[in-house]
Amino acid sequence: MPVKHFLSALFVFILGFSSVHAQVLNPAKWTIESSVSEAKTGDELTLIFRTTIDNNWYLYSSEFSCEDGPIKTSFTFQADKSYQLVGGIVAINPIDKHDKIFECDVKIFKGKGEFRQKIKVLSSPLKISGSYEYQVCTELTGQCVPGEGEFLFDKIKVSGSKSQSSKSQVPNPKSSSIEATKDSSSIEPEANNSQSVTSNQQPIHGPQLDPALVQQDVKGKSLWGFFLLAFFAGLAALLTPCVFPMIPMTVSFFTGRGNKFQALMYGLSIVVIYTVIGTALAPLMGPETANHLSTEWIPNLIFFLVFVVFGLSFLGLFEITLPGTFINKVDQQAEKGGLLGVFFMAFTLVLVSFSCTGPLVGSILVSSAGGEFLKPIIGMFAFSMAFAIPFTLFAFFPNWLKSLPKSGGWLNTVKVVLGFIEIALAFKFLSIADQAFHWHILDREINLAIWIVIAILIGVYLMKGFRLPGDTGKDAEDKTVSVLRISLAIITFTFVIYLIPGMWGAPLKALAGYLPPMSTHDFDLLGANRKDKPNEICDVPKYADFLHLPHGLNGYFDYKQALACARQQHKPLFIDFTGHGCTNCREMEARVWSDPQVLKRLKEDFIVVALYVDDKTELPETEWYESEYDKKIKKTIGKQNADLQITNLNNNAQPFYVLVGNDESVLVSPKPYDLSVENFVKFLDEGKAKFKSLN
């Protein structure tokens, strides 16, 4: 492994890789019907809302006593002079359920659900419209998905007025033999935020995807990388002052009893406890939270503060501890013996070591908040496995204890270094929000300057240049620097030297995914001296005042404008679905796009358009439109680009690269995250060849 890659991996090992694929969940499909197809003024009729719910999912009904619980199904009717509501919405035969999450009794539907609303016809033409919202959950994975949709009844014919002898056209709500007339096709709303705006603008029509070109999901690679990072975090936790001294103490307990089976159960209990924590938090990290957590300023600011707090606690400013009474009660259970006692011994270890492991565990959980349900579970499993292995192995092989170094000040040194790394990584989250909202408070050189200062502090601390509150005892007083400290200081200062050219525009490819893009760099002296001829485009790109392409590429940030230029120059269109908060996007640009073979092809053979799916810039009202996919009004650049990708390509992952012909047909299978330059060149060449064969 190149030295610079090793140094960067050492510095950013806590962060997980971003997911390269996300699935749009839609577990409930709705249809609407009316009890009659014709009515007279004064008649009463019934509107019927039916939903088909996927297996292993359930939908919350419209009325139950749990007020602070899940989202109830609700219907909002747009007022109109042609009708009048009679009573409220009626749920037909929901099932009773005790909701453990919200600790209250609710009513739900499984498989199928039905709601009815009576209305009185007042005049012709009859037009009934409105919206509904709901929540569906599954007990298999603990996920919950909110959803919403709109409805319109405008095909019921109204003639004459109701006679005195005619009966109301209202069916029995409990009867299944309704002669219903379907008034609309099935509605498939996306779980998304509600919009109260209506628009006559047409949606952006984009690339037409041939289903045969759909590639397989590659999220397993991301999860495997995250597993390894969480595993290394577990190993790092062993080298903290709260944990390391407990290894010989705990192992001596088991070797004294001579019960190696209990030692094995002890290690297994540690894994179970941490994995259960990940499982309990997994529903909070579900797919529908991905974009919100990755781009909104509030969650990213919270994550930034969490990492800073964890880092300061490691530096010795304060300790994050659990209540002593709670720990004592758990410890009392451990004294009972047997397998239950072994489990509570493991639980006691987890609680006692919390002040050192808490920041690392919290960092893993924060890093897993990228939209995958399995990520926090896998993260906690990997962390706990690394954490538990030494306890189990030393219990089986007690002679190994003699080779362990003695506890001392070096443990606090490990803790302090981890604290500095946590603070450095905190700025990743602040940077994401800064890019999405164009605040320009943490541009690339500012981020680099902070990292350089922190790395220098780590190096000076390793050389015993200063002490912190936790540095006490003989080790702190002794100014002698060990060979290990010198070696680590050399690595740290080498990392500083590697970072410094980045202040003047060096790409720093190994860290590209964790730094703001080069376009935010104010004094790119290296870029100013480049003499590469820029590629020619047709006109001035929209949004070029705040959106930019890397490596001096000229291109567009609006699909329609880019397509028009591609047709004018008779070139295929290279679409880059990207995001300000997309770590893998920056890494692809730095490691793959920068390769001369790739860059030459992008400049000469394609019209390039970068479509940011998380940009928060609101467009003029004349450019808003209603999505064909979820029937919601798309107001921002990011919302429109995300809708373009989902509607036309059935994909909402970034990075996602698509090659499109002048007729908007997709030329070859779209390309997800892949750091192989050879594969990317092949992808571009195949698209170019297919374009030529069709023209």
Which key terms come to mind for this protein?
alpha+beta, six-stranded antiparallel β-sheet, about 700 residues, disordered N terminus, single chain, globular
Write a brief caption for the model:
The protein has 695 residues and is of the alpha+beta class. It contains 20 helices and 18 strands. Helix content is 41%, strand content 16%.
Describe the fold and architecture:
- The protein has about 700 residues and is an alpha+beta fold.
- The radius of gyration is 30 Å and the shape is globular.
- The strands form five sheets. Strands 4, 5, 7, 8, 10 and 11 form a six-stranded antiparallel beta sheet that branches. Strands 6-9-3-1-13 form a five-stranded antiparallel beta sheet, with no helix packed on it.
- The longest helix has 29 residues.
